[in-house]
Specification:
The protein is mainly alpha-helical. The chain is about 55% helix and about 5% strand. α1 (about 5-20) runs parallel beside α3 and α3 (about 40-60) crosses α4 (about 85-100).
Length: about 150
């Protein structure tokens, strides 16, 4: 999905998403926008919709806007290193909008070994992203991670 596709999909799934009563909503989107060359203005308008709809669906501000990971060595076509310029712009937009909407942001710390094609997480990458996001949430709520307990 591009950000606008996610916003549209949220409309179609709103009742189902609200019924699930998410305690936390995490948002990670943007490499398809980079692949398609979405201009900053269009990404900004679409991401604004995603944030507003996320708050409506969740009923709270426990939303984590995750920065789009940069494209790393080993990426496959059609992704190209120059797309990182777009991703940098998207991440600035995400940071600004998260502040405006009172939601948290988070940047994953991932390397080439976490992706099977430079864009999509492999199993190890999915586990690592989950571990990092879980640790961020626990730390943000001042709750000790299970591995930190005696």
């Amino acid at each position: 999905y591009r950000a606008i596709d996610l916003a549209r999909s949220m409309d179609m799934s709103q009742a189902h998403l609200q019924a699930s009563r998410p305690g936390v909503v995490s948002l990670l989107i943007g490499t398809n926008d980079a692949k398609n060359g979405t201009p900053d203005e269009a990404f900004s308008a679409a991401y604004e919709q995603v944030l507003v709809k996320s708050r409506l669906i969740a009923g709270h501000a426990n939303i984590i806007a995750i920065h789009v990971p940069l494209l790393l060595p080993g990426m496959l076509y059609p992704y190209l290193p120059r797309m990182n310029d777009l991703i940098d712009g998207y991440n600035r937009i995400i940071a600004r909008m998260a502040t405006e909407h009172g939601v948290r942001t988070f940047a994953l710390d991932l390397g080439p070994e976490h992706f099977f094609d430079g864009v999509h997480l492999n199993d190890h990458g999915a586990q690592e992203a989950g571990r990092q996001l879980g640790g961020f949430i626990l730390n943000d709520k001042r709750i000790a991670a299970v591995t930190d307990l005696p």
